[in-house]
Amino acid sequence: MRYSANHKEETREKLLQSSAISAKKSGFSTVGVDGLMKAIGLSGGAFYSHFSSKDELFASIVERELRQSLERLGADQGREKLERCLKQYLSLSHVEHAESGCALPALGAEIARSDMSIRRQAEHWICLLQESWAQVLESESLAWAILSQCIGALVMARMLATEELQRTVLRSSYDEIGRQIAGPRI
Q1: Domains, the chain, ranges and CATH?
Q2: Please, what is the Cα angle at 118 between 29 and 16, to 5 degrees?
Q3: Quick one: how far is CA 72 from the chain centroid?
Q4: Do 125 and 67 touch, CB atoms closer than 8 A?
Q5: pTM, entire model
Q6: Phi and psi of 24, rounded to 5°?
Q7: Are 73 and 102 in contact (CB under 8 A)?
Q8: From CA 44, how far away is CA 54, in angstroms rounded?
């Protein structure tokens, strides 16, 4: 059977997408190569025609996911887009569906334990996101504070067992960020 010229790239993209979903849902360290390949209908041996190691796959997932986060959450279109993003980010849907959301709350601890090259790569994308928010908010420190608060609120909400308390954490964070964005009232 002959494959199309794009087959290898299409398979690599399927593997990246499937692996990112698995990693954000269950953690990257818990996912084996055979399971990742089986999820896209291939044998474990085929993995090495796409990546030299599981670490290389993780680096590719981090780059892909954080680039996509920048595209979704970047505030290039102004304050209104930033506010819409914050509302979506701090939602119960985002808590319940880690596999389709931001990689930072789901994979942050694993990124922190990774080698320096992966941490630098994550830093690059995080800084780009922070810079886009800082332009809109006209404050570098406020952009860092809000970015950190959003990630922390999502991690906290995911740790909690009751939906009511999850909603309280998300709503409280959203309200406080709204006050921070509005600035001092005269």
Answers
A1: 7-182 (1.10.357.10)
A2: 60
A3: 10
A4: yes
A5: 0.85
A6: -70, -30
A7: yes
A8: 12
Residue with structure tokens 């996101």? 129
CA atoms within 13 A on the CB side of 121: 18
The tens place of each residue's pLDDT in the chain, 186 residues long, gives 566 668 778 888 888 898 889 889 888 888 787 777 787 877 777 788 888 888 898 999 999 999 988 888 776 667 888 888 899 999 999 999 999 999 999 999 999 999 999 999 999 999 999 999 999 999 999 999 999 999 999 999 999 999 999 999 999 999 999 999 886 543
Q: Where are the alpha helices (DSSP H) in 74-139?
A: 79-89, 92-96, 103-113, 116-137
DSSP state of 91: S
Q: CA-CA distance, 66 to 73, in Å (whole number)?
A: 10
- The length of the chain is 186
Task: Tell me if residue 90 falls in helix, strand or coil.
Answer: coil
